[in-house]
Amino acid sequence: MSDSQPPVPDEPTERPPAPKINPYAPSILTEPAREEVVSEAVRIRRQHINHETSVGAVGGCFCVVAVPLILFIFFTVLAVISRGTGNFVESIISLSITAIVAAVLLATGLGLRRRSLAARVSTILLSALFLLVFPVGTIVGGYVLYLLGSKKGQTVFSAEYQEIVDETPEVKCQTTMLNIALMIGFIIFVFIGFVLFGVVL
Predict the structure, then answer these.
(1) pLDDT tens track for 94-106
(2) What is the per-residue pLDDT for 151?
(3) Which of 76, 79, 82, 111 has its CA at 20 to 30 Å from residue 39's CA atom?
(4) Among 6-10, 24-28, 97-101, which range has the highest average pLDDT?
(5) Is the residue at 76 inside a domain?
């Protein structure tokens, strides 16, 4: 009969302590996950880049129109100073109206290029007034209202899209012939409107 040895108990194994997790630490994306997020942002930006460019072109139109109005104010002030107090009240009224129009156009134009919500609201109001001037104003105003009121227009002015723009600096706006034609037509239309309604006269 063979001698049987008693079983040797397993030695307890020590487990390494669990790493401490900081709940306030920023989340860390793996490289594939980060690339996926960036590629999705690029895809969304490219889907809306033409719309974004058109909105910026409208803002550029407002800025271009505001510049000669500012020059008009400057030269009118010089004329009033040189000829004394003649027609002083009429000049002040004309300058005040022109200054308000120039300030609104310049602020709206710069705001549109930055995709500001306040600029979007003021542009909608101005475009609604353009609709009353048939047929050119109706066409221009209707197109601008489409740019700002469409689904893509609402996306372009959203805070989420602004984050996408910051994440995709490699995606550049490209000016198309349609945008150039829009800018030229818009500027001509606005100057004709100023002459007809006596804003700068």
Answers:
(1) 888 889 989 999 9
(2) 94
(3) 111
(4) 97-101
(5) yes
Please give the backbone phi and psi of residue 58, each rounded to the nearest 5 degrees, phi first.
-65, -40
Please count the other Cβ atoms lying within 10 Å of the Cβ belonging to residue 108.
25
Distance, CA of 110 to CA of 166 (rounded, Å): 18
Provide the H-helix boundaries in 84-176.
88-113, 117-130, 136-149, 151-156, 159-167
Residue 29 lies in a domain: no
For residue 16, give the amino acid letter: P
Is there a contact between 78 and 32 (Cβ–Cβ < 8 Å)? no
Q: What is the DSSP string of 149-171?
A: HSHHHHHHTSHHHHHHHHH-TTS
**Domain contains 157:** yes
Number of domains comprising the chain: 1
pTM score, whole prediction:
0.69
Q: Considering the domain boundaries, does residue 191 fall inside one? A: yes
Counted residue by residue, the chain has a size of 201
Q: Which domain holds residue 58?
A: 48-197
